[in-house]
């Protein structure tokens, strides 16, 4: 699988930002033709995206363009990108709500090396995310569009990726009321992740809008990584370092995973399918979990 711990989003029509993104430490970059581009600038943004993809040195980065929503404009954008942007790795489809949208774009990219990635960012998109993930073809990843999803369901708050402070579990004990903060996005994140994994796709979390808050950006990334996501969108280079680290197993995690693999290998040589390690039972389920850690660390450091 492609290494995409960080997807740095940049407006395609802003040349300085695009050039900076190409030089950045992001694993992937998506040049945006959709929400980050004013209506009057969209034709110029498409031309700028093609020029940047062909002329800049992107190194090993995954280069993606987020096109506009389903319709004639999207069809024309994808046709242009497939024909002229020779370095393009994938098109990112916004607000996908049906498998048919994937199938239609598959016809456009068939016979090329351009993959499809889909954003789940509406209530309807979440309802049909399993069918979308099952569309097959060149579909490689599902992204969670947390900002638009929040608007779609009518959630309170305007901070992208953050839970509203009133979304808490209130309880009473000893005459006092205690509020336990809850995660507004746990359900859609898990559902998108399960759909992606069921059909062999990568899962990418949406951005943390508080890009100047390094600790909040890090915690948001650590949560997604702990759930099993492959990476996360970022909206500013300041978020790259902490997000890349969050999706890279630490030395301690890597060493612990290696110990699990080694312990079960010893057990197998002795004819056993399980073994005790540090007072805990280790079996084949553990080794599959450990193998993912070892693989993720290996891919991240190569």
How would you describe the overall organization of this protein?
By secondary structure, this protein is α/β, with parallel strands linked by helices. The mean pLDDT is 92. Helix 4 (99-109) links the parallel strand 4 (90-93) and strand 5 (115-120). The chain is globular and about 65 Å long. The chain is built from twelve helices and twelve strands. It folds into two domains: 6-246, TIM Barrel; 251-301, no CATH class. The relative contact order is 0.11. The two termini are 13 Å apart. The protein has an eight-stranded parallel β-barrel with strand order 1-2-3-4-5-6-9-10, surrounded by six helices. The protein has a two-stranded antiparallel ribbon with strand order 7-8.
Q: Give me the Rg, rounded.
A: 21 Å
How does the helix and strand content classify structurally? alpha/beta
Identify the CATH class of the largest domain: Alpha Beta
Total individual domains: 2
Looking at the structure, the CATH topology of the largest domain is TIM Barrel
Helix content percent band = 40-55%
Largest sheet entry: 8 strands, parallel, barrel
Number of DSSP strands? 12
Itemize the secondary structure elements and their pairings.
Layout: E1 6-11, H1 15-23, E2 28-32, H2 42-55, E3 62-66, H3 72-84, E4 90-93, H4 99-109, E5 115-120, H5 123-127, H6 129-133, E6 139-144, H7 146-153, E7 168-173, E8 176-181, H8 186-198, E9 202-205, H9 214-227, E10 231-234, H10 240-246, H11 251-269, E11 275-277, E12 280-282, H12 284-301
Parallel strand pairs: 1-2, 1-10, 2-3, 3-4, 4-5, 5-6, 6-9, 9-10
Antiparallel strand pairs: 7-8, 11-12
Helix pairs in contact: 2-3, 11-12
């Amino acid at each position: 699988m492609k290494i995409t711990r960080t997807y740095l989003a940049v407006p395609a029509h802003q040349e300085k930002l695009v050039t900076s993104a190409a030089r950045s430490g992001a694993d992937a970059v998506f040049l945006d033709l959709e929400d980050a581009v004013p209506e009057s600038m969209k034709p110029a943004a498409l031309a700028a995206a093609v020029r940047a993809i062909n002329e800049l040195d992107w190194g090993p980065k995954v280069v993606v363009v987020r096109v506009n929503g389903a319709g004639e404009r999207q069809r024309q954008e994808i046709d242009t990108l497939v024909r002229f942007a020779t370095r393009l790795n994938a098109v990112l489809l916004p607000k996908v709500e049906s498998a048919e949208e994937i199938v239609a774009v598959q016809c456009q990219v068939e016979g090329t090396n351009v993959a499809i990635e889909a954003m789940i960012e509406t209530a309807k998109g979440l309802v049909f995310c399993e069918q979308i993930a099952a569309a097959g073809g060149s579909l490689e990843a599902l992204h969670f569009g947390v900002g638009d999803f929040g608007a779609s369901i009518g959630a309170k708050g305007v901070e992208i990726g953050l839970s509203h402070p009133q979304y808490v579990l209130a309880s009473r004990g000893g005459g006092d009321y205690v509020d336990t903060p809850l995660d507004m996005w746990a359900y859609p994140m898990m559902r998108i992740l399960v759909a992606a994994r069921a059909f062999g796709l990568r899962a990418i979390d949406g951005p943390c809008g508080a890009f100047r808050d390094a600790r909040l950006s890090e915690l948001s990334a650590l949560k997604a990584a702990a759930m099993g996501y492959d990476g996360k969108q970022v909206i500013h280079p300041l978020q790259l370092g902490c997000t890349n680290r969050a999706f890279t197993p630490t030395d301690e995690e890597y060493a612990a995973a290696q110990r699990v693999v080694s312990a079960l290998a010893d057990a197998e040589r002795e004819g056993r399918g399980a073994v005790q390690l540090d007072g805990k039972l280790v079996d084949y389920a553990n080794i599959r979990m450990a193998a993912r850690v070892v693989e993720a660390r290996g891919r991240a450091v190569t």
